């Protein structure tokens, strides 16, 4: 089993690129990871450490590839008290619901008993052409908390 399970949601692939960059950085520290793009709830351990990275689609919505996972969490209401997680959102501040997807997922995970590690990172893609850069800086602090 991986030390960290990445869960990504993306429309154009930005969240996946961020996950790949962060996984490579963790590998240098001998921290293993697995990246799951839009997994089903049944594909995940309900223990351990998750790192969710998602863009926001439309008007603050979860991207299509992560929507089934989000809906399964809401419907099945699993006990996630053995899950610790990090949260990174990608968005555009010009929209009213900036980073709405990660905010919704974050709230849902906490309501199911999961514990967020550190602060949620919200990356404005209009201010960061390469979202991997602020995510890498955030990871340096976050990994010391796991």
TrEMBL record:
Residues 4-143 form the Flavodoxin-like domain. It comes from the Bacteria. Its cofactor is FMN. Gene3D superfamilies: 3.40.50.360. SUPFAM superfamilies: Flavoproteins. Transmembrane segments: none annotated. PROSITE patterns: FLAVODOXIN_LIKE. Keywords: Electron transport, Flavoprotein, FMN, Transport. The keyword Flavoprotein applies. Pfam families: Flavodoxin_1. The keyword Electron transport applies. NCBIfam families: PRK09004.1. This is FMN-binding protein MioC.
């Amino acid at each position: 089993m991986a030390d960290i399970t990445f869960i990504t949601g993306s429309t154009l692939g930005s969240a996946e690129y961020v996950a790949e960059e962060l996984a490579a950085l963790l590998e240098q520290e001998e921290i293993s990871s697995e990246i799951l793009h839009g997994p089903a709830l049944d594909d995940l351990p309900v223990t351990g450490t998750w790192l969710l990275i998602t863009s926001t689609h439309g008007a603050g919505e979860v991207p299509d590839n992560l929507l089934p996972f989000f809906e399964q969490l809401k419907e099945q209401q699993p006990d996630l008290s053995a899950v610790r997680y990090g949260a990174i959102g990608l968005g555009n501040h010009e929209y009213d619901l900036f980073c709405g997807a990660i905010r919704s997922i974050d709230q849902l995970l906490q309501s199911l008993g999961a514990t967020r590690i550190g602060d949620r990172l919200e990356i404005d893609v209009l201010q960061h052409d390469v979202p991997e850069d602020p995510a890498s800086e955030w990871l340096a602090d976050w990994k010391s908390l796991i």
